[in-house]
Amino acid sequence: MPEAAARDAAVRAAFRSQAKSCAALGSPFVAMLCDLAAERLTAAQPVGRHLLGWTGDPSSSADSVPLRFAGSLHALVLDGADSALSQVYPPHATDPDGLWIAVERACRDHAEAILERLASPPQTNEVRRSAALLPGFLTLAKRFAMPLCLSEVGASAGLNLLWDRYAYRLGDFAWGDPESPVLLAPAWTGGRPPDASLILRERAGCDLRPVDPAHPDDAQRLLSYLWADQADRIERTRAALHLAALSGLKVEAADAVDWLERRLAVIRPGCVHVIVHTIAWQYLPSAARERGDALIEEAGRAATEAAPLARLSLEGDGQAPGAALTLQMWPTGERHEIGRADFHGRSVDWRGWPGLS
């Protein structure tokens, strides 16, 4: 197959695959948009030509071209830059032909803005993942009876570093600030999380392109990558961004592994140092993942009961359903899959740490 034809086919396949993922994750609108792009994109306009000639890997596990495209269009709606496009976006009803006519017009009228957005990878900060992380933090508090110090890789705007500012309903277990504007209540299966006193001493995060929740353009950009027909998700993220802006928390702009090396070089006696990442590790280059894993293992070997280390992650593992919630603790190095969760945190299947309740 000629190179140009192979690129075209790979992009269309990426849009079809993303459509299936969106449908499974409760976004029929973006699923329709991606299916339409797979079928109807042409190289007649600069945007279509750029997309169909994509030189990297357009799939969701790499460059995420479909989500770049969906985010660039949603940004035009959120900014009020294209009234015709807004009229075929939620909450308005639409049909495939009407949607695609508006999309093609937007690609022509806003080509420069869309092409600029396509140059950047999509960035989300799904706050509902905190509902999967909280039981892991409670497990660590139960096991060590120490405050936690957090280091999050791929923290984006830091919304999942502020998990203690939210309200939770995990089955019949309630936790957090009942007055919080952010309520996380996933579909919950499994037993209750551990009941433990939880103190957070320190929190820090890094991202290659951190989002400043206090900056309106940054906040709007983050919201644009959310799916337009998921109004509850958008409003929940708005509320979390507001809390983050009030907190003054700043995520550091840094390479993940270089930053992690600096964080691991500091011993924190009397505190459980928790390395956290959610749907982020998989996007690091393989060499960076290997180096990061080696750094964590090396720090784990130096951990003690007085200065323990833990790694709490929610990452895709190729298994269904959802992603694996995994916890590893040092000084023992013991590791378990303590649950599984939907990629957006809509559901959590809690399994817990063996022998700890």
UniProtKB/TrEMBL annotation:
UniProt cross-references to InterPro entries, sorted A to Z: UCP012608 (IPR011200)
Species assigned in the record: Rhizobium quercicola
One Pfam family hit: DUF2332
Protein name per its UniProtKB record: DUF2332 family protein
